[in-house]
Amino acid sequence: xFNGINNFIRNERMHFRLFDLxxxxxxxxxxxxxxxxxxxxxxxxxxxxDNFFKDKINYPFFxxxxxxxxxxxxxxxxxxPKLQLxxxxxxxxxxxxxxxxxxxxxFKKFLATDSLRRRCANLLICGTLPVLLSGILQKIFKIxxxxxxxxxxxxxxxxxxxxxxxxxxxxxxxxxxxxxILPFCFAKLLSNKVSNIKKISYLILTITxxxxxIYTNSRNGxxxxxxxxxxxxxxxxKIYLLVPFIIxxxxxxxxxxxxxxxxxxxxxxxxxxxxxxxDLTNFNELPRVKIMKSALYYIYKRPFLGWGAxxxxxxxxxxxxxxxxxxxxxxxxxxxIFLEVAYIYGIPVSLLIFIPISLIIYKSSININSKxxxxxxxxxxxxxxxxxxxxxxxxxxxxxxxxxxxxxxTGLSCCRSRDNKLINSN
Length: 426
Description:
Layout: H1 2-10, H2 12-24, H3 30-43, H4 58-78, H5 87-92, H6 98-106, H7 108-111, H8 114-139, E1 147-149, E2 154-156, H9 171-191, H10 196-215, H11 219-232, H12 239-259, H13 269-273, H14 287-301, H15 312-318, H16 337-345, H17 347-363, H18 373-389, H19 399-417
Antiparallel strand pairs: 1-2
Helix pairs in contact: 2-3, 4-17, 6-19, 8-9, 8-10, 9-10, 9-11, 9-18, 11-18, 14-16, 16-17, 17-19, 18-19
């Protein structure tokens, strides 16, 4: 037995293949994926020439971990009894963050080089094919779920509703995943210089991904399509792309203003109604604005230790609330990733997490002379898209999306340092 464990620890190639399996199954079979990725987080710490504290970027994450534990334990012992909270959720909520600070370091072994990041991106694309297939079955063939495999060990939802959900249980989660994969689809398409057959297949893949994003009926999805198209195709430097892009955008904007109230007379009218901008004359009455104002109010009340995980749905029902009608929106979270962390654990934790992440994204470099330059560009863009989308909706609590986000940040950190000495030859 000990010889078998010792052989496994020494088998570097096996370590990389287990990580590959975790990436491939992340979207369609998260339970299987997390099993492989947990093993990878252990093997990723083996045979490392650096340790966790060698890179100073890990310091704020370590401090955030300590503060999250202090906040959770404090609220577990001295929390508001009248809130009738689940004490277990106060502690379990830390799982959404603390393990990923370790994963951020451990996974660098598997993402340290341009070629490894390209391999990971290609596996993410391959792992998204079941998402696209289930979305097509749902929207075109009206085949609905949920479908379960291995006694509900794996569940594909495919709900019977207007918006595409695919394997996810929420259209916003499906939109977020597809939006993060779309830049890599563009990279796959643009980096292929040889085979016309391959280009056609990659073009079909990209168009299918865009179509599925549109069918999620997500405003964030529409914004991400525009960002990915403009940046990956470098629209502003190519006049033959810029002119038609502006014309299409102009026509969509005019149409959304003129016909949004009567869009049901058009095919897919419900989708295009989403393009209508909200009435900014009543900005303070918008639901998301009210939610964020309430979040800011409660952050002001407890700026250092926060209110604890899973408390937002009940806090305003028991305590003074400046937006009392918020109760009718059945709000589960703050809909903003910065506010969410500040509300749960306090402002210091939010700063300790997102200032380093912002610096990693900002300082990550793209080697334009590399054959993988499109993938490097896509990697950075995908991380930015997640941050942008998380300003208006909070999909981080889906383990597939949080895992993908930290994989992106880990890869960008390797782009930042260009340190390829983290691993031995695989």
